[in-house]
Amino acid sequence: MTDLTPITYADTAHTSEKFLWPRSEPCHHGKRFRLSAASGQRLIYRHPTEALFPARELVDTPPKRLRELEQMPNHSPRPSDRAEHPLRWDEECLRYTSQTKVNFIIGVIRLFSLFGLLLFMPIFFLVSIYTSYLSAQYEPGNIILNVITNFDLFFFLSVFSFFLAGWAGAQLLYRLFPNYTSGYQPGPMWELNRRTGMVTVFANSAKKSTAWKVAHVLPFHEFDCYIQSSPTSQGIAQYNLSLVHYSVEAHVALVGMFGVTSRLDQLAAWDMLQRFMDTSQPLPDSPQWEQFRLLDPTTLKWDKQTGRPPRYWRDMDDETFNQKIVELQNRLSAFYFG
To answer: Tens digit of pLDDT for each residue in 123-144?
Structure first.
């Protein structure tokens, strides 16, 4: 039976007051490291008592999805293999790794092919019919027969077969070779641990021989958070976060977990991380953390004092949930930009 005893914090566990501790070591960052990892705007430290989190986290985890996960066979907030799993999001830690290169390439092929079949081919068909019609107008005889004659069926079927083969081939590879074509790298890239207050940066997650080799284990309060921006193809600014140690060349690219989103969502993500790591405060009250609230001592005490329902998010109806999305977006806008 799964042990559901709340975790016990280590002596090194983080609280927000540690951000005020003096830093004695000089900075050893090279120019290349500063340009890649420590570029952008450095965000301030906070004591985020507001229960804020990115709106994306709310949109991506509706109550229906939470209930579906609960009903899966052998579901548990503490699965037996979670200690060895390279991906985690629970009361103890946030741990991240990326997809394998093979999975990424096949996924791109499948997505590109599906886009071609569902969007490009209908447009291509209509355009081909229209160009055939324009040509048929200047030819004698029945215009419908002329349109059919001018329509390049071979070329159309060739393009259609190209997209169909890409999509079907990717689907077949996923079905026949799931262990090879899907999944994540064998080891994690980084970990933020609430129980210990430490940040772990792993050396090389892509190879089995070095998958769990640790490069750095450093206190969370010694990291600075930078928000970095890059324009989309339409020229719209998109943002991502990076945690950078103040002295040694160790950093955590948070873009994999929180994506490239609006500045508003990234600011909320930074406050959510600070609240998660601060053991003097309860876990962020977002849907993804709800099943773990009984496993964290500070959160358990908080919920008893405030009378928070244990299934606040999971039992919420769709109409109320949609209202909560709007309310959260308004709160974020007022808090950061108001």
So the answer is: 888 888 877 777 766 666 566 7
Strands (E) in the chain, as ranges, are 41-42, 88-89, 93-96, 190-193, 198-202, 214-219, 223-231, 237-245, 251-253
CB-CB neighbours of 206 under 10 Å: 14
Spatial contact of 274 and 197, defined as CB atoms under 8 Å apart? no
C-beta separation of 239 from 13 below 8 A: no
- The C-alpha atoms of residue 310 and residue 300 are separated, in whole angstroms, by 10
pLDDT tens column, 244-281? 999 999 999 999 899 888 999 999 999 999 999 999 99
**Distance of alpha carbon 64 from alpha carbon 75, whole angstroms:** 16
Q: What are phi and psi of 241, to 5 degrees?
A: -115, 150
Looking at the DSSP bridge assignments, the partners of residue 267 are none
Least-confidence region, from 9-18, 131-140, 185-194, 232-241: 131-140
In which band, very low, low, confident or very high, does the pLDDT at 46 lie, cut at 50, 70 and 90?
confident
Alpha-carbon span 292 to 170, nearest angstrom: 36
Q: Which two tokens stand for residue 250?
A: 């160790």
Cβ neighbours, 10 Å, residue 238? 15
Report whether 260 contacts 55 (CB < 8 A).
no
What does the alpha-carbon distance between residue 277 and residue 196 come to, in Å, rounded to a whole number?
9
According to DSSP, the residues that pair with 284 across neighbouring strands are: none
CA–CA distances in Å: residue 285 to residues 16, 89, 103, 261, 307: 18, 14, 33, 21, 13
Give the bridge partners for 245, in sequence order.
223
Mark out the alpha helices in 71-176 (DSSP H runs): 101-115, 121-136, 143-150, 153-176
**Closest by Cα among 187, 181, 189 to 103:** 181
Residues contacting residue 173 through CB under 8 Å, at least 6 positions apart:
106, 181
